[in-house]
Amino acid sequence: MASDINAKLRQKQYEAAVLEFAGDRKGYFVVASDDPQFASLLRQTLTKHLAIPGDAMSTVANPDHILRELKNVTMRRKTVLLFLERILEGRDTNLLVRQLKSAYPDLKIIVITGETERNRLVLLHEVGADNFITKPVSMNTLIEKMAFTIKPLGKLGQLIDQAREFVHQNLPEQGIKLCRQILELKPGSAAGYLVMGEAYQHLGKLDKARECYEEASRNAELYLEPLRRLADIHGEMGEPTEQLRYLERLDQLSPLNVERKVDMGAIHLELGNQEKADELFDTAVQQATREALSYIADISGRIAGIYNGRDPQRAEHFLRRALDAKGDMLDASDLDTFNRLGIALRRQGKWQEALTEYHKALRVAPEDENLFYNMGMACAEGRDFREARANMLKALTINPELPRRDPVMAYNIGLVFMRAGGREYAERCLNIALELDPGFTKAREALERLG
To answer: Residue 357: left if φ>0, alpha if ψ -120 to 50, beta else—which one?
Structure first.
């Protein structure tokens, strides 16, 4: 009971922070998303749950229009909280995050993402993302994320914000004084040492600033900002070897930053390490190429999605272009494209060609149950029920709960086993289909035929 009360009190605190932002701080919410469900949830949260006027929010679906929208809003002296999809119209937005933070340093950005690799999120955080939301998200979690992004809760967070504000207002001595209070409240505070370092750097006391950044890094090993500041300090002090040491530590924590690899290569070249410089430059070009090819593949995939269902031949064409764009850089992230290509081929009756594509996909994802399910379906469509059964068994071995994902999937697996002589599996899957959808007539009829 006490924990429930505490949870409700915390939620009220989060709601109060968002309401204060919208009211006292003239907050405005910009949603850069092509996901109508997320935009609808945010609007419902703001207008219905928190009673914030609807004119405090706008939605942008085209990434090329975001800067224009931010300009219009900031001209009205609004404080902006931006929700930005990690992938918007097929584009990875990490470069856009960097540009937006450069143009609007005080802008708060929450990146909206599905499941994605950690290194990608680390890069986004490094270039300016303040927080992340993983979809699907509940209303309470959405409010909590907004509250923590808008305003640090608790006395310590507010003091750190105040100290940082002193430094930005060209009052570094007052910032240092407040940081000492912060460190008394929380000895070893990485954020406290970081702001103190900023203040000393502002005063031109680089040795003192370096000591503060080193303390910040020691107290928070995964905190990127102290390492970045240390690299900059040693660059200012004309110490390329030490600068390189910190850049290398940053690269270990955030390996997807192409610009940093170029900076590291330049220092190696300056130090006479031609071979290492060339290696870093080559890696940077390969990484940039991979990102460019991924963009081309994403655009081709989007076009295929438009054709999907209405013209499977055109969908096939663009899905092949998406895979061809990646060349020999295919990985598990391309699995969805392979699956969609297989479905487009099967809709044209090309089940054997679909199998060929699924086998290619197995090279990058040999333990993916969806692949084996789709292979089973392709074989069944070609009336090779023996092979269909083998693929469905492999899918169920990898994930025994696969039929519970969807009633149609459970029904399809059940049909394959009916025709391939697997009565026990057929009965179980058809029962699951009915459990998930009691009105599934075809599954009921199949069970009756089985019995």
So the answer is: alpha
CATH code of 408's domain: 1.25.40.10
49 secondary structure, DSSP code: I
Residue from 384, 442, 451, 404 nearest 424 by CA: 451
Cα–Cα distance, 451 to 445 (Å, whole number): 10
Residue range(s) defining the domain that contains residue 316: 256-366
Two structure tokens written together for 308: 């999907």
Distance CA 274, CA 345 (A): 50
Tens-digit pLDDT profile for residues 283-307: 999 888 888 787 778 788 878 888 8
What pairing do the DSSP bridges indicate for beta strands 57-60 and 79-85?
unpaired
DSSP code string of 404-439 = GG-HHHHHHHHHHHHHHT-HHHHHHHHHHHHHH-TT
What is the value of pTM for the model shown? 0.66
Residues 180-237 have pLDDT tens digits of: 999 998 899 988 999 999 999 999 999 999 999 999 988 876 678 899 999 999 999 9
Q: How far apart are CA 378 and CA 159, in angstroms?
A: 62
